[in-house]
Structure formats: structure tokens, C-alpha cells
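The instructor's notes for this session suggest beginning with a concrete chain rather than abstract definitions. Hand out the sequence below and ask the class to guess, before any prediction is shown, which regions might be ordered.
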Amino acid sequence: MKKFINFCYEHALIRPVVILVIYLAVYFAGRVILLVQYPDDFKILSQTEIVQAFVRGMMFDNAIILTFIGIPLLLMWLPFKLTQHKWVQLFWNIFFYVVLLIMAFILVGDIIYYGHIHRHAGQELAIALQNDKDLLIAMAIGSYSFHILLFLVFSVVLFAGWKHIWRIEHKQTDKYWSRLFGAFVGLIVIILAVRGGLAGKPLNIINAYASGSVAAGNLTLNGPYAIFHTLRSRGDDYASQYYNDEALKKVKEYVHSDKEIFPNKINYPLYRMLESPDLNAVKKPNIVIIMMESLDAVFIDHYRETRGLQPLGVTPNISRLSKDGLLLTNFFANGQRSIHGLTALLTGVPALPHRSTIDQGMAQSRLSYLGVMAKSQGYETVFLQSSKGHSFRIDSIAALAGFDYYAGSEKIPLTGHIEFKNGKWEGWDYDMLVEADRLFSQQTKPFMGFLFTSATHLPFIFPGEQWRKYAGDTQQEKYLNTLSYADWSVGEFIKLAKEKGYYDNTVFVIVGDHVSGQNKASTLDAQHRVGFVMFGKGVKPNVVDTVASQVDLMPSLVDFLGWEVGYASIGRSFFNTDYKVDASALLVEGGIVAAINRDTWLRHSMKMKLESFDSEKTDHLEDLLLSKVGVVNHLLDSNEILPLTNNIGLIKQ
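After discussion, reveal the predicted structure:
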């Protein structure tokens, strides 16, 4: 070992190579951990495919590593007096150590994140760091303190080894001109590694999925590369290639119903209204939408009953309410984060890959907003969330979406039912629901309430023994205990609604914003199927397996309530049975889009189909998926979702 170290001191070329090998070893270890930690995600891969993923993964590892340390490695190696000064060499040694620590930290965080959404992190990480940095830190400390401790130990050990191996001074036995020539060759090698070779376009995320397997692609990629290139390509316009006359025709056929008229099919193809509102529709009931944090359908006992699964015992109230109303067993979240769910539910349009969500630039487009539509029908509007108001800028979103009254946890009185705060969220669901009851009971006009819970969000803070259903030894058990509390809170809220007298004239909707990440199944449907329950005035008890998603809520409410209002949505009513094209859901997973209907499903990179179930049946679904993506993308770009009218598209033209 001593001879090797001395050799490194005497030959400058060896030092950059050893540094690169250490970096690659860390990335290799991260890939091994990913494979071992989530075997169900990669069990479909053969041993040969796993080896191929590791080999191809080195190309992505080298690309991201040399993007950040390639030029510094050359500068450290150059034979000039300045570059070889001991303080310059010390700077580069510290630099390489710090960059390796950062990359290792991202690798660890990405591996943990992968367990929740079964893909690598992307631009959502940067958005979260920008908007909710304190929350992410609190979640990390609360849920992953042991992982952080291990990482700190790793950092100390690495520092000790780094300091021991890399001395500041070394003998320069290499000749001046040979070093310059070597630097030139090294520069070419670095460029080729970062680019991914000479042929074709530069390496990108999509190349990891060249085999057509999502599992192989996920194993090939690494977290730092996925995050960096997703952020770098946020402006890439993959979707525009799918907008054409044929795509527009397919989308029009999909949303078309004989019950609705489309005043301007050319410029505003999604804009429509009921031709003659149903006289039997429920007239101006109150509307309460509870968007529940991380609510998988599979954890609701009534849903489990329809699938022949054993009950978990944590949702007695939601299950009872679903038996009194409508349970949709194939209801899907259009995205994988709360802001995606909020965007789809409030606007009827999903947040597409490489595009902003409603809290970012998407709000610059003219969109239909659920609160604005309700106000046009004579409703008072209220938006409450049990987390802090700055989360995702929801205070601003609520105002834009037409909600006249808004309050986050900092403005909601505490009931004292729990003596401590809910971590960084600070508020508890029950407190928010009690405040909602107070506001609703004071209303003299029909009202729409949108209530956003938080108790079931990571780090799954245990509310108290009253709600303990499981020991809490695993993340799933911690989640189920918080779901028990959230369910109890909903049950108490419904009791209050009945006591105050507005229950009988109210339509209630309980819908998940996204899945919890605690369902062990990694299939497409399991990663997007959320709970959906609708009950109250005029809602008949029923269990329906129609495929629907969050963008369908807006047209469904218009249909059910008989609203005389113009709106634009890529969704359609799940109460309407006269559509000529089978229902399907458009799903977004980072830079990937997906679609699912009752017969099949597929994932697509927007360049090629990645994987599917029963591929012979997916051709039509693939065409429709890409048509939806292309049309929505084009209409957002051209600002032709909603017409510009005096009443924001709320009157017939």
C-alpha cells in the first residue's frame, strides 16, 4: 500500500485517475444499494440485464462526475508553476472532497426518495428546495436521522482517508511537454465522457431507457445525473411534436359529449358548457372538497373489501361514508406531488413534464378555476389547509383560483386536542376541520370549501395513543397511525356538520392528492390510485370501476350540479355514460408520461414507449396519450385553454 501511495505522489497522472475511481466506487455502491433496497422494482430484470444496466450506468456516472470535476482534474495536473503551487493543490483536494460529499448526499437522498415514488428525483427537488427548504430539513431530521448519522460517519472516515492519502507536495517526474499533451488528451476524453460519445446527440436521461425497460433505465440512471439533466432540460419541448390536426381530432373526440356544446372548437377545443343543464340535477348544494394528503385507495377498508383484501382498521369513518355514497375504485392522481394534485383538481388540466405547475409559470395561462366557477354560480368560497400558508404558495393559488377566504395553520385556532405542534406543518387536521365547520355554519349562501389536510405527510408524526393502530416500527405503520388520526378527524367533522344542520344540503368529496409511497406494489396503477369518495345530497350509494382522475372532478361537478358555466378541461364527467371513447387517465412521473384504462396501461418517454401491459392493446391508448400531451402543451403555450371573455370564460358565447 505504501509503495502505491508513493507511486501516486511521484506520478501526477495517477492522482486524477485514483480520484475518479473513488467517485465511481461511490456511484457503484449507490447502484448496488438501490438494487438491494427495492428488489420488487427490479425483479423482472434478468442477471444479464442487471449487468448491462451496471455497465451502461458507468457511462452516466462518468458523465455527471466529469461534468463537475473534469476540468479541475486537468487544472490540478497541468505542469505550470501556479497550478502546482501547494496552496492551489490543497484547494483542489478540498474541492474534490466536498464535491464527492455533495454527490454522495444526493445519491443517498435519491435512494430514499425512490422508495416513495419509484423513480429518481427530478425538477421537483429544486422546486421543493426553493419553496419548502425548512420543511425538507425537518422531514429529514424527523424521519431519517439514522441515515444522516451514518452519512456523517461516512464523511469523517472519508476525510481521514482523503487527508492521509493526498499529500500536498509531490515529486514532479513527468516531463513538461508530456503533461501538456496528456492534458490535451484528457480534455478530449472528458468531453467525450460528458457528451456520451461522438455519434448522435449528447447523452440524456432518455438514453437510459433505450432498452424499453423502465426498470433497467431506473437502475442505469443515478440521482445526481437525473436531477441535473431534468433541471437543465426544463425548457425542452418534447411535447410539441405531438400537436397536429390528428391529435386535436382525437382529443376532441375524447372529451366530446352530446350533453355539452363547444362554442369555439377551433381555437379553444377544450372549452365547453352544458347544452341544457339537467333539471334533475342537485340545485346549489354546498360543496366541500377534502384533499387528503397521501391517501392511497388501497388503505381504505371499503376499497379493500371490493378487492377481497383484509381490512386494516384505520379508516372506519371514510369507509362508512363511502358506503353511503359513491366510491370510485379506479381513480388516479395525475401526478406524484401535492402541487400536481392541486393543479389538476383546481384547473382540470394536469402539470406536464418539463412544464411549470400552478404555483409557478402555469398560472400565466388562462385556466378554468374551480373557485371562480363556483362564485359564478352564487357560491361563497373558502380554502383552508392544516399546514403553513406559504407551502407551495397556496395562499396565492387560493386567491387566483377564486377562493375569497383563505387560512393556513398559522391562522387556525388550536382546539387543544393535541398538546404539541405537527412538526413543521404546525397544524393538525382536526383543528382545520373544526375551523371549517365554524365558517360553514355561519354562511347564509351556498358555499364551496376546499380543505387540504397534512397529518399523513412525512415524517408521519404520531399524534397520540388514542389513534395508535400499529406499533409504528416501520414507515408504513407510522403512516397507518396518522391515517387513523386523519380518518377520526373527518368523522368528527361530519358529526359537526350534522349537528349544525348543513350536512343534508352538502355534497362532500374526499380525494387523495397522491399516493403515500407506503404501498409496496410498484405497478403503475398502485403508484397513482388514490382514494375517491363522494357522498351527501343527491349522491346515490354505488361502487363504480370507471377509470377517472383528478382532472375529471371539475367536469363531473359541472355535470352533477347542472352548473350553467363555461369551463375548459382535458377531463370529462364520470357521471356521463354517453362518451364514444373509453375513459383513460393521463399520468405524469417526472419526465415520463403514462396512461391507463380498464384494459391496459403504458409508460412513455415522449420519444418512445417504455413499457406496457398487453402491448397489443396499447396502440390506441398510446396515440391518445400523446395527443392529450401534445394538445394540452400547445394550448398552454398559445394560451388557448380558456377564451378571454368579460367573465373569464364563464358565459356562453
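Then share the key points. The two ends are 82 Å apart (CA to CA). The chain is about 45% helix and 10% strand.
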